What we know:
Blueprint: E1 4-15, E2 24-35, E3 39-43, H1 50-57, E4 65-72, E5 75-78, H2 84-90, E6 94-97, H3 101-104, H4 111-121, H5 128-138, H6 155-167, E7 173-177, H7 185-202, E8 205-210, H8 213-219, E9 222-227, E10 230-236, H9 237-242, H10 247-254, H11 261-266, E11 307-310, E12 313-315
Parallel strand pairs: 3-8, 3-9, 6-7, 7-8
Antiparallel strand pairs: 1-2, 1-4, 4-5, 9-10, 10-12, 11-12
Amino acid sequence: MTDVAIAIRDLVVTYPPVHGGRPVHAVRGVSLDVQRGECVALVGESGCGKSSLARAALMLRPPDAGRITLTTPDGPRDLDRLTRGALRRARRHLQVVFQDPDASLDPRMTVATSVAAPLRVHGLRRDREDRVTALLDAVGLDPALGHRYPHELSGGQKQRVGIARALAPSPAVLILDEAVSALDVSLRAQILELLRDLQTRLDLAMLFITHDLSVVRSLAHRVAVMYLGSLMEVAPKATLLATPRHPYTRALLDAVPVPDPTLQATRIVTPLPGDPPSPDAVSPGCPFASRCPLREARCDTEKPELRTVADDTLVACHAISE
Length: 322
């Protein structure tokens, strides 16, 4: 995994004020790489900016600042600098699976028509019927379902259709925005197993947006922890789960219940004080400062940079040096 499939640099997303309020700083200078064949899980509480980062990376909501560089067969392409036509062509290599399959599938289109849509858009393959059949089979669906409509499918089947559609143009990068959160536990396990298999076979780069740490354990190679628009920690999965460095990462892991009731009863979990500040009132310093047990005077005025504190581990904290 030495090739960068997508590189995000200094990304900023700010939403304009509503009804006389203040601008909302959803993403504050985030930089993150995803390598070919790697799954990076982006985790954090609801409202921390994960989906805003995903939409900006897809250029569905162009960022206010920063750069998104996608590696294509024709070389690197800065998506934020492309013309509309060039961006449309580049999107063949960058696809998305959304959270809600009911909202992302057109109820008037059959399964086969939905899966074939990217092939038509990008002018790919004359043997589209064979390609659709192969894609449905690859995601564990009977190709005979191609004649059905979304309302005739279960939730898990619809999400598999969404994955098949995303894979149709043979992308290099797949962004999944809470792609299993709407499914029950058994279906979730099936979809995660499917994604693991597809990633291995197709050498896909995946950016998986989630708030569910069980997804991290199942699928991710690296984990990026986000809080109020900023990255707090980026580390290999095993390292982060075993020895989290940032106080916010430790708090996230402490909040996950242990399946063993006896062990859970003996755990000592100290909840974080206070509530997250509003995204429209983030201080110029560390966004986590008001709740951090390691708070220093400069944390209120100086935002910490994401820097290396150990092998392959990046942390944004003034108080952590190694």
